[in-house]
Design brief:
The protein is α+β, with helices and mostly antiparallel strands. The protein has one domain (6-130): Chitinase A, domain 3, CATH 3.10.50.10. Helices cover 35% and strands 28% of the residues. The two termini are 31 Å apart.
Length: 136
């Protein structure tokens, strides 16, 4: 499934802000995707991590169509390699903007990102245009 699906993130924030002052909460944003071999088998199938840029580059290399999942607000694509089907979930500018909108909606303190070096260039433009950035 998607990395931090917005519907599940929203559920966590609903609970968290009901028991913690929202101004004490930093929104954690992932900067990676997962490449899943299919079919998924609990406890047997393992995904490979990749940066969001690497995911987009893989879609281009595989000539894979990128689809949008409205429930999770996340892009994904499918491809086949060595006879194995794969599904890749990742974030792009649109999914990042949707997730970042939760900062204002829940009046959160800010955002932290994980893993630096995996970011995609559009993320910095979204952050710079929308927020005051403080490096800690």
């Amino acid at each position: 499934m998607a990395i931090a699906p917005v519907n599940q993130v929203r559920a966590v924030l609903e609970y968290a802000t009901s028991v913690i002052d929202s101004r004490k909460i930093l929104f954690g944003m992932s900067l990676y995707g997962y490449d899943w071999p299919l079919p998924f088998e609990q406890g047997k199938t393992k995904a490979s991590g990749l940066s969001n840029n690497a995911a987009q580059n893989l879609a281009i290399a595989e000539q894979a169509s990128i689809f949008w999942d409205p429930e999770s607000a996340s892009p994904y694509f499918d491809y086949e390699a060595a006879g194995v089907a794969h599904r890749v979930w990742f974030d792009d500018a649109q999914s990042a903007a949707i997730k970042l909108s939760l900062l204002d909606e829940y009046n959160l303190r800010g955002v932290s990102v994980w893993v630096l070096g995996n970011e995609f260039p559009q993320l910095w433009y979204i952050l710079e245009d929308s927020y005051r950035i403080t490096k800690l």
